[in-house]
Amino acid sequence: MEYEAVIGLEVHAQLLTESKIFCGCSTKFGAAPNHNTCPVCTGLPGVLPVLNRRVVEFALRAALATHCHIAAASRWARKNYFYPDLPKGYQISMYELPIAQHGYVTLKLNGHSKRVGLTRIHMEEDAGKNIHDAHSDASLVDLNRAGVPLLEIVSEPDMRTPEEAGEYLRSLRAILQYIEVCDGNMEEGSLRCDANVSVRPQGSTALGTKVETKNLNSFRAVEKAIQYEIQRQSETLNAGGRIVQETRLWDADREVTRSMRSKEQAHDYRYFSDPDLLPLTVAQEWIDTVQASLPELPAERRERFMQKYNLPSYDAEVLTTRKDVAEYYEAAVHAYPSDPKILSNWIMDGVLRVIKDEKLDTGLKITKWPCPPEQLGALVRLIDEGKISGKIAKTVFDEMHHSGKAPETIVTEQGLTQVRDEGALAVQIDQVLAANPEKVVEYRAGRDKLLQFFVGQVMKATQGKANPQMLNELLRKKLSTDHQ
Amino acid sequence: MALYNLTIHEASDLLRKRQLSAQELTRSVLERIRTTDAQVHSYLTVCETEALQQAETADRSLATGGPLPLLCGIPVAVKDVILTKGLRSTAGSQILAHFVPPYDATVTCRLREAGAIIVGKVNCDEFAMGSSTENSAFLPSRNPWDLSRVPGGSSGGSATAVAAEQALAALGTDTGGSIRLPSSFCGVVGLKPTYGRVSRFGVVAYASSLDQVGPFAKDAQDCALMLQAIAGHDPRDSTSVNTSVPDYQASLTQGVRGLRIGIPKEYFVEGMQPAVEVAVQQAVAEFAALGARPVPISLPHTEYAIAAYYIIATAEASSNLARYDGMKYGYRAPQTEGLGETYRRTRAQGFGSEVKRRIMLGTYVLSAGYYEAYYLKAQKVRTLIRQDFLKAFEACDVIATPVAPTTAFRLGEKTADPLTMYLSDIFTIAVNLAGLPGLSIPCGFDENHLPIGAQLIGRPFGEEVLLQAAYAYEQATPWHLRKPPL
Prior knowledge:
The structure holds two protein chains of two kinds. Chain A is of the alpha+beta class.
């Protein structure tokens, strides 16, 4: 039987606030273990949480950017469970009354638009980190992350394929980056994703038993794990088995999911409203202020790029999926407005490729690439002005990447300027023709193909700097007229 | 008269007139602790050296003159659930037996800023759960009026320290009656402020929506001074309320003329110790004689208060006490295998039986499938109880009731039956559920010469009126002046 998958994602986005959600400790990544802690986030006796207003503002931004309804009053809840990285024995989260509900994200896939519903968005605190020390049998706890603010964003089960799920996640990440609430880095864990997958016979409207898969720390893992689950569940059903409601873990090395705990072993978190915090009320005024401050969002920017720069939909999509890339592109266009499409090509095939190959976009910032956008603009200008060939441009690009030098500097220093001096070029051509008298005869006898041979020889002699059109012209002229 | 016999206002007067030094006063109190604490067991930690240093500092301030902080040079005791930086704070529990906090509770800070001298930390039921101090992991405190009897709880040590004059005043906490019950059993004045009046930051949490810090004192005026020092908004406690704090002392002498005193019929019930009922009725008569007007009122949902309380308080406690897991601080069971066993043994060994009982109760009422029937229902009852009071306050300004149905009982008398023990708080619990201020004031003695307390309940943030009434009553009666035979 053929099955259709029903997929929903639960995303945890770490917020880019300076301080933690319920205390004043820094959220900076990379401090010495347990350095960014205080009595509040380490859960000492007697401490009380005080809400960081910025976190609410960030939640409002995310909620408004995803068209959610904001609750006039929401409530903090305690999620109770024991774990060494959870200092209070409970996590402060939101449960029955989240801050935002009923939103959606619009995705573009293969030219089609699709709306994926958002069930809810709520705020909560992150837990610390357990580090299992390889040198002893101890486990060490680092509470720097404990109390770092998170948004939990729960989608409706609106996706049907792994690609849709991947695209939803990319679209959501783009939104979070654009509104500057989350850096969106899955590898570093600032964006985490759990997938709920079930399958049902094609055409059926009833929902199958859902399985939750955790530990998806890359886009690839999300798509692969969902693919795996769809296949596993379909095969199980086809073999006459049944799906058990459970939580599974993605094993990225073996590319399989493994059972972590069954429904029976599921925690009873004993949620109840946190008596240490007042219900959260958000005034309409505040909502309006945040709404007014929202920047251009990825979908709007994609449209604008297509209109303003006349880019194909694919280019606009690639360039706007990340805010840093979109901004880099626009700055490059600003520096050299004559050819937006060529600049798009250079970013997609040049900058993004290098960044990816050399893993330069830690923190998903194009700033790791050493050349500012103005220099990429300058490179394209050099080509358009005929100062360098497209081929030389690739050499210059590589050099820009390695040294960070401006393209003009590289061209001057390495003498890469095209030889456009007819006299100089004629001398080179004469030398080549003189060295190959038989080939000249053959050409004149009708072997036109030999033109490429002469071009190659002159290019070799000029180290590729000969202006190709000029060279072609001159060669033809010399070979037809110059009877020695 | 010994120096430790002084009230705060008397001592402050003498200190400011330079007729007494803070060091003399502190030494007298420390000496009193030395001679009497073997009998009453108020203190878990006495910090003699630090106290004398603070007294020296106070004396220097006093010598320079100028504006002095409110409690300058006054020796006080602090309940051991209230954190004191660098000074062991056990919450009466084995699990925190060696816990030395790295920070001060807000109320501790405020006491220090007010110039008070903290002489030590006083005993209580473990995590403030109990009505007799018999749940202290260390030792029970004893009632200074009869050493075979309990002082009440959970802030028993605070009450005995003030009653036995081992401190001029003390801080305690009240979640279901833990200030008012021991005040009544020990014959001192105790005030549970309105929920949100005093910061809970740095107070080991038992039931966060009910806990409130308040003073124990020898009379209403001292009580007002102590409240003045600790009350007020604290940005570190989101549930503390940002309303101005009145000058409690300034309005103390306004009297009770025209004050309508509500007498709820549900608080005078069958099975009460007759002497208690008589004393409280006499107190009401005394108020009437002073110009107040008693009015009968009804608080119809009173009978559900205990049930609702033991659901809400235990639910919150089960979560609040989850942090004592042996990972970061406090007791950890030795020689355990693996995480699960470490948790289980640490908590099995570190907590006493009443604490475990309440954690289990609270865990149960929050569990999937029971939450609606218990916790949610209890919250609804709580709302009804609060509405009862607010409605009653349309017809009266203050409500007068007994603090407890009996005077102090004997040690061991109720330990075998937790339910009987829970009933000690039958008249105090509703006040916590409603978040109102409640004051206990000595109003007589029973046939065994044990003190009886009357409870005055006020409107939200109506502490001023309670203190005025108590002060007026004290001017007309001798009860607060009697001292236990120690």
